[in-house]
Structure formats: C-alpha cells, structure tokens
C-alpha cells in the first residue's frame, strides 16, 4: 500500500508553473536530440529515484542524460565518458535556468538548438527573456516528486495486465501529466488538428494519467479517456465511488480526485480500481478484443 503526500494546488501553484517551464526546457532538448519515436514517445521524461530524467539520449557515438534532481534541487548532465556538469536550481529565473542548462551542455561539448519558447503554456515569453522572479518551494517540488514515484509504481502494476502495445510510464512536459496509454492495434487517423495531434492520435487508444491541476481545474487528479470516444462512454460505471465523469473539449473524461485517492483506506487499490474500471468499461464500449490483450502472468 502506498502513502501519498498532500498536494493542495493553491499552496504550490506558482511553484508548479516554475517547475513546468524548467521541465519544458529539458524536454525540448530531448525532443530535438533523441531519434523520433511514434506518438511522440521520444519527447517524454521519466520518474527517477531522485527526480525526473530524460534517460539516455544518443549523441554521436556517445550519449548523455539530464537529471532534474528533486531532492537536492540540482540539474545534473552526464555524458557516457563520465564527464558531468551540474547547477543548483532554487532562486533561478526561467532565463537563468535556460542559460545554466545550455552553458553546461556547452561545457560537455553537446550542441543542441531548440525552439526556445514555452509550448501550449500560459506563459508565452521566450525562455531567454523570462527574467522575472519566480516562486520555487523546494519542499513542494519534493512532495510532487514523491507522489509521482508512488503513482508510477501503481501505473507499472496496471501495465503488467496488458499484452498489447502500450506506452512506458512517462511524463509529457507540455501538458505536465504522467501517462500510460494502451492501444487496440487498430488505426484511426485523426482528422484535422495540429500535426502533433495527428501523430499522437493515429490509432485507437485508451489513456489514463495523473496531473497536478491547473487554473481551470485547481486540484490534482487522475483521469482517463478513449479515442475515438465510443457511444455511451460516460455511462461506464467508475470505481471507486468518488470517481465521476466530466466533459473536456466536448468529450467524456473520467476523473478521480487525487485527494479522494490519497485519503482512501488503500490508496493504491483505489487508483487501480479507477484505472481498471475505466479501461474495462471503455474497451467494451469501443469493442476492443479485450480478452486477446490480457497478460495472463503467473
């Protein structure tokens, strides 16, 4: 059974915005440098034992990793040859963080160019020009990371039950959510939208995730949805009892508030019940070959 720390949105929302922009800078470096993968899997970050990491990024005949350490609040860039460069995060502006990352990359002879502006974010200021003082509550960042670690373990358990194609447990830095997506194997190209959307939604999916909240929904929550959305999706019975259906962008979105899961008698069981009820109900509605996709492990 896991223990989840409190994550009251209003108490760390400004710090969350700061962290989000810092991680966008790191994520854009991975996106630009890593070989492209389907559904944008090459852009994501991953939970690490002390923070969030890019994982190994191939670079020439070598490779490098960027680790955002959420315990010591440092960014550590390491090359395969053992060279390392790092810097402390607290007190930095977005411009200061951007400069620190790229100056350390240069020290390690790593040359990367990114589109240095926030993506799909309420801030539109180019990173190098964002010099305003920003909140950074180190304890809140560490609590968020501890929550991600616990949730990642539950998501990994959820993944073991599926034999088909599915994502790793990964954090999308543009939307700032931790995600696991399952695929039926059937193509269903998205019509319209941005090129990024069409690449993300080229096949049928049932996706679940966790995000820390935003100004439109100021609470951390677990969520789930299906693409394409089957008829009657919002009639699927969700578990546990506090879970509910909401509407987002004209579609049905299953919600379990983080606080309801955190205060449950068994938080991990509550989260798994939510993930399973959403997937199993959506798979029936969408006529997935659910039996063929079960991983019947011992």
TrEMBL record:
InterPro entries named in the record: DUF5996
Protein name: Ava_C0101 and related proteins
Species this protein is from: Roseibium denhamense
């Amino acid at each position: 059974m896991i223990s989840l720390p409190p994550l009251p949105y209003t108490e760390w929302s400004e710090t969350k915005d700061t962290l989000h922009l810092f991680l966008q800078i790191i994520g854009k470096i991975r996106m630009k440098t890593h070989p492209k993968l389907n559904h944008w899997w090459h852009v994501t970050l991953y939970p690490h034992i002390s923070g969030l990491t890019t994982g190994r990024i191939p670079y020439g005949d070598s490779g490098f990793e960027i680790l955002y350490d959420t315990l010591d609040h440092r960014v550590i860039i390491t090359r395969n040859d053992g060279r390392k460069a790092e810097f402390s995060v607290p007190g930095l502006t977005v411009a200061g963080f951007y400069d620190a990352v790229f100056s350390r990359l240069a020290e390690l002879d790593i040359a990367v160019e990114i589109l240095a502006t926030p993506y799909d974010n309420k801030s539109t200021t180019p990173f190098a020009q964002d010099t305003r003082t920003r909140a950074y509550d180190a304890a809140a960042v560490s609590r968020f990371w501890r929550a991600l670690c616990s949730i990642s373990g539950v998501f990994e358990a959820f993944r073991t039950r599926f034999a088909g194609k599915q994502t790793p447990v990964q954090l999308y830095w543009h939307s700032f959510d931790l995600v696991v997506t399952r695929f039926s194997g059937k193509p269903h190209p998205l019509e319209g939208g941005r090129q990024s959307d069409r690449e993300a939604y080229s096949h049928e999916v049932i996706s679940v995730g966790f995000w820390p909240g935003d100004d439109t929904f100021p609470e951390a929550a677990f969520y789930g949805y299906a693409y394409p959305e089957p008829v009657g999706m919002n009639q699927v019975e969700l578990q546990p009892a506090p879970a509910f259906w909401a509407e987002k962008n004209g579609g049905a979105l299953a919600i379990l508030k983080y606080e309801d899961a955190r205060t449950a008698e068994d938080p991990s069981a509550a989260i798994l019940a939510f993930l399973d009820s959403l997937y199993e109900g959506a798979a029936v509605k969408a006529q997935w070959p659910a039996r063929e996709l079960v991983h019947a492990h011992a």
